[in-house]
Write a structure and sequence with these properties.
Layout lengths: L18 H11 L5 H18 L9 H12 L15 H4 L19 H12 L5 H22 L5 H11 L15 H4 L18 H7 L5
Length: about 220
């Protein structure tokens, strides 16, 4: 009876992107007793790892990255003369810092927090073309977000009123602010062209001349 070697039964790889063969080579050099031979074998594996992952060459000091990966694959139990200090295990398992999210409720979810921030910035501008330009961007983005979120049409008065609410009455419509139509804000879906019959249509005179009959 044959014994099959399944991946699920093998040792879990720390960095699967290098493949099972690299893992086997690293496991093997851990058993080499001669230190000089072990160092030469490690350098050979580094070259192989670099060839398997050429995208690492775009990373600054990619050689350092490869030696770090070698230590990780060896489970930090490879005694060699590495040109770089072995990375600390504690830093690898350390949880990333939590990203601070802005607190507070959003009055209108379909507009998002970015719109609220834009409105806040616009209210601090002096009256003029720059403020009108930013207000135009805001109301049109609000209309686009509203239609996209709710999948329905919306009156411009609703958008204007929402903007007044979010700005606490500090941002108003002026003559230089124009709200676009929905068709101008959202890309139009092109209709697929209907299939045309292949070949040229046959007219009645051609059919009679050739002696063909419809019956």
């Amino acid at each position: 009876m044959m014994n099959y070697d399944y991946n699920t039964q093998r040792k879990r790889m720390a960095l699967p992107e290098y493949g099972r063969n690299v893992q086997k080579m690293v496991d093997h050099i851990r058993t080499i007793k001669d230190r000089d031979e072990r160092n030469r074998a490690a350098k050979t594996i580094i070259q192989i790892m670099g060839n398997l992952n050429p995208h690492l060459r775009d990373i600054g000091d990619f050689k350092h990255k490869l030696w770090d990966h070698l230590a990780i694959i060896a489970d930090f139990e490879l005694d060699i003369d590495s040109p770089y200090p072995v990375p600390e295990v504690s830093k690898l398992i350390e949880k990333p810092n939590q990203i601070p999210y802005m607190q507070g409720n959003i009055r209108f979810l379909h507009y998002g927090r970015i719109i609220a921030m834009m409105i806040e910035a616009a209210t601090e501008l002096e009256e003029g073309e720059e403020k009108e330009y930013l207000t135009t961007l805001i109301v049109n983005q609000m209309k686009k977000s509203y239609v996209t979120w709710n999948r329905s049409q919306v009156a411009d008065e609703v958008i204007i009123n929402d903007m007044k609410v979010l700005s606490k009455g500090k941002l108003k419509m002026t003559d230089g602010v124009r709200i676009l139509e929905v068709r101008e804000l959202l890309p139009q879906v092109r209709k697929k062209p209907q299939g045309k019959p292949h070949g040229k249509p046959q007219n009645k005179q051609y059919i009679k001349k050739k002696g063909f009959s419809r019956h």
